[in-house]
Design a protein that fits this description.
Layout lengths: L1 E3 L18 E2 L5 E3 L2 E3 L8 E2 L9 H5 L5 E3 L1
This protein binds iron/sulfur cluster (2 copies).
Length: 70
């Protein structure tokens, strides 16, 4: 699974790129198996690891290489 580091400049380019919709915007709750969970970051987009299938599409659009293997 991938994770977003503090190098992220919150350009949000990766959010729409994820085919699994595993990347959520900062400060937005995510829902998994019917359970609503508070955001993992208030500062930048974040990856819900259990939804990520490691396709790496997100890494191709990140201008600062802030998406890395968790
Ligand atoms: S690696 Fe693929 S599935 Fe995982 S967060 Fe990035 S775009 Fe989404
Ligand atoms: S593309 Fe990179 S810099 Fe932009 S929001 Fe995603 S992780 Fe952050």
């Amino acid at each position: 699974m991938m994770t977003i580091t503090e190098d992220c400049i919150a350009c949000n380019a990766c959010v729409d790129e994820c085919p699994q919709t595993a990347i959520y915007n900062a400060g937005i709750d995510y829902e998994l198996n019917g359970v609503v969970t508070p955001p993992l970051s208030e500062d930048h987009p974040y990856v819900v690891g259990s939804l990520c299938d490691d396709c790496k599409s997100c890494t191709e659009v990140c201008p600062v290489d802030a998406i890395v293997e968790a």
